[in-house]
From TrEMBL:
<dbReference type="GO" id="GO:0015990">
    <property type="term" value="P:electron transport coupled proton transport"/>
</dbReference>
<feature type="transmembrane region" description="Helical">
    <location>
        <begin position="173"/>
        <end position="192"/>
    </location>
</feature>
<dbReference type="GO" id="GO:0022904">
    <property type="term" value="P:respiratory electron transport chain"/>
</dbReference>
<feature type="transmembrane region" description="Helical">
    <location>
        <begin position="237"/>
        <end position="257"/>
    </location>
</feature>
<dbReference type="GO" id="GO:0004129">
    <property type="term" value="F:cytochrome-c oxidase activity"/>
</dbReference>
<feature type="domain" description="Cytochrome oxidase subunit I profile">
    <location>
        <begin position="124"/>
        <end position="583"/>
    </location>
</feature>
<feature type="transmembrane region" description="Helical">
    <location>
        <begin position="269"/>
        <end position="292"/>
    </location>
</feature>
<dbReference type="InterPro" id="IPR000883">
    <property type="entry name" value="Cyt_C_Oxase_1"/>
</dbReference>
<keyword id="KW-0472">Membrane</keyword>
<feature type="transmembrane region" description="Helical">
    <location>
        <begin position="406"/>
        <end position="426"/>
    </location>
</feature>
<feature type="transmembrane region" description="Helical">
    <location>
        <begin position="124"/>
        <end position="148"/>
    </location>
</feature>
<feature type="transmembrane region" description="Helical">
    <location>
        <begin position="368"/>
        <end position="394"/>
    </location>
</feature>
<feature type="transmembrane region" description="Helical">
    <location>
        <begin position="446"/>
        <end position="468"/>
    </location>
</feature>
<keyword id="KW-0679">Respiratory chain</keyword>
<keyword id="KW-1133">Transmembrane helix</keyword>
<feature type="transmembrane region" description="Helical">
    <location>
        <begin position="204"/>
        <end position="225"/>
    </location>
</feature>
<keyword id="KW-0560">Oxidoreductase</keyword>
Length: 583
């Protein structure tokens, strides 16, 4: 069995897919290591410069004063005319051969506030993102505790903290709290921006923020109290609570549709297609999932498969891809590679993704033809995934060098890589042989984190790091962004790889009819690695929260003076410093 398993096409494809992000991560590590070296070297230069600045002699000060006057000189129109031999009395060609940096690599630029966004809209967006960060910390802290419980199951004996209650708290909070808040908040920027008009109503945006917070807060309390929606895997919020969430989305959908209807531009950019379609779909998904008319017996199982997959693919994935179609070209300062590929991915995702929910129930009692349709549609998802991935990667053409000097583009790149590998893994999992091995094991947990975390969360981080400095004018500490990136990425790889390896062995044990307890013993070391990887991911979220705080409330960055004018100004500021003698 161990020899034949690698002869299956699904297993071979999976091995190839999990190698892709590893190779990309190694490439980014090399690039970022060199960038870190440059940063340390510049910090050393700044330290040496400050020591030298304190001991500038009068002659050196006079030199800089002279050079300041020379560099401020404006060339007259007739300066170079006549038969007078050229001279450098004005300092025009001073140090003309000095090259302080590689000119083929663009210098990392600081962001400046963008004037076209109103302070009122900026405040609304930042509140959405702020609550998203809060729910991310809260939800993943619960997830961290759940991961620890796999290693120490007797950590507590409190009913409110039991695994059966905390697990839905974790999933629902990161779904409806973190990801949904971030997506809606970012949409309030993109929708009016590409429509070239102000948002229809800021008041409606605040209503949405309040209603979504009420839903997540009351839903969390109800779940911990044992009040839930029965056997639903993700839809544990009872219908009155989820109705409040849906009401908030309906309000913003109306807000966005009205804004697009009043647009100044003739065309509706593809980002708005994705965003508005996603908001329509999530309302339909919630209505289908919560109305009990068609949920008797096997019908409930089919609806459950529809709900769990459409929630991920037609809400989180669909809306995040819409944001990607705006933020990636904007960050690279170039248009999307192909508008047509974006439209192809849009319609094919609608066609195929809405049919694949039943692939979670292969070999179940639901009709065989329905299982087969889900498998075929899962293979059909290759079309939008390849179209979208190719579109994003080809947009990088001519701009790959920017990855080295950018602290946001690595998040984009990893999100795109996981979009391809994670989505293709979902297709492979639908094959009957691989489904037989992996389903109902921890492999499903690994896959869900590979997609919701590797794709959705990494992309949302990329968008937040792109947008917030542009509306506040304040950047995060670049070193801390790097720490956030690597902790999250390495932690995710530890988490998913360990569970995928252990779950494959677990599934093979089940197929060999081994006792269940044997698979539990087998998974013990893999659950430990899951806890280690999850801890790294959890710590990275606090680093991200710190970076977010720095972007909205940060002191002025220290800049190394280079020009004579900057050096003299630094010297004047140094003289203004008052030193109080100590007793």
């Amino acid at each position: 069995m161990n020899n034949s398993i690698f002869g299956e096409s699904g297993i071979q494809i999976t091995v190839l897919l999990i190698l892709i992000p590893v190779l990309v991560g190694l490439l980014i590590a090399v690039v970022k290591t060199y960038a870190t070296y440059k940063d340390l070297r510049n910090r050393r230069k700044l330290f040496e410069f400050n020591k030298k600045l304190e001991n500038l002699s009068p002659e050196e000060l006079a030199f800089y004063e002279k050079r300041k006057i020379e560099e401020a000189y404006q060339l007259p129109h007739n300066e170079l005319s006549g038969k007078i031999p050229p001279s450098d009395e004005k300092g025009i060609i001073h140090n003309i051969n000095a090259i302080e940096e590689l000119r083929v690599i663009p210098h990392k630029k600081s962001f400046v506030p963008q004037k076209y966004i109103s302070p009122e809209l900026a405040k609304l967006i930042l509140y959405f993102l702020g609550f998203a960060v809060f729910w991310l910390l809260f939800g993943t802290t619960v997830g961290e505790y759940l991961g620890i419980k796999f290693v120490a199951p007797d950590a507590d004996h409190v009913s409110w903290l039991s695994f059966g209650r905390l697990r839905p708290v974790h999933t629902n909070m990161v779904f409806w709290g973190w990801a949904s808040f971030a997506m809606v908040g970012l949409s309030y920027y993109v929708i009016p921006r590409v429509s070239n008009i102000e948002i229809h109503s800021l008041k409606i945006g605040w209503y949405t923020l309040i209603l979504m917070n009420i839903a997540v807060l009351t839903g969390t309390v109800s779940l911990m109290a044992g009040i839930n929606n029965g056997g639903g895997e993700y839809r544990e919020y009872i219908w009155p609570i989820m109705a409040v969430f849906a009401a908030g989305i309906v309000l913003s959908l109306y807000n966005f549709l009205t804004t697009v209807a009043k647009r100044v531009t003739r065309e509706i950019y593809v980002s708005n297609w994705y965003i508005i379609a996603a908001m329509m779909y999530v309302i339909v998904i919630l209505v289908v999932a919560y109305i009990p008319l068609w949920q008797d017996g096997l019908a409930e199982t089919i609806i459950q498969g529809y709900y769990m997959h459409q929630g991920v693919g037609m809400w989180f994935m669909f809306l995040t891809l819409g944001l990607m179609y705006y933020f990636l070209p904007q960050q690279l300062n170039k248009p999307i590679y192909s508008y047509s590929l974006g439209i192809l991915a849009f319609w094919t995702q609608i066609i195929f993704y809405t049919l694949i929910g039943s692939h979670h129930f292969i070999f179940s009692a639901i009709p065989w033809w329905m299982q087969t349709v889900a498998i075929v549609a899962s293979v059909g998802m290759v079309i939008p995934v390849v179209a979208g991935t190719a579109n994003f990667l080809l947009t990088f053409n001519g701009a790959w060098h920017q990855v080295k000097t950018s602290y946001t583009l690595p998040f984009y790149l990893i999100g795109i890589v996981f979009y391809f590998t994670g989505s293709m893994q979902g297709t492979v999992e639908a094959f009957r042989f691989t489904n037989l091995i992996w389903h109902f094991t921890d492999f499903t947990v690994a896959h869900s984190h590979l997609t919701m975390y590797g794709i959705i969360t990494f992309m949302l981080w990329a968008f937040i790091y792109t947008l917030v400095p542009r509306i506040t004018g304040k950047e995060p500490p670049k070193t801390m962004v790097g720490i956030h990136f690597w902790l999250a990425l390495i932690g995710l790889l530890f988490y998913t790889f360990s569970l995928m390896i252990g779950s494959t062995q677990k599934g093979l044990l089940w197929m060999d009819s081994k006792p269940f307890i044997q698979s539990v013993v087998l998974m013990a070391p893999y659950w430990l690695w899951r806890a280690i990887g999850g801890t790294m991911m959890w710590i990275s979220h606090f680093v991200f929260a710190y970076n977010f705080y720095k972007m909205v409330n940060r002191k002025q960055e220290i800049i190394i003076p280079r020009t004579p004018a900057e050096i003299l100004e630094a010297k004047r500021q140094l003289k203004k410093t008052v030193y109080f003698p100590t007793k």
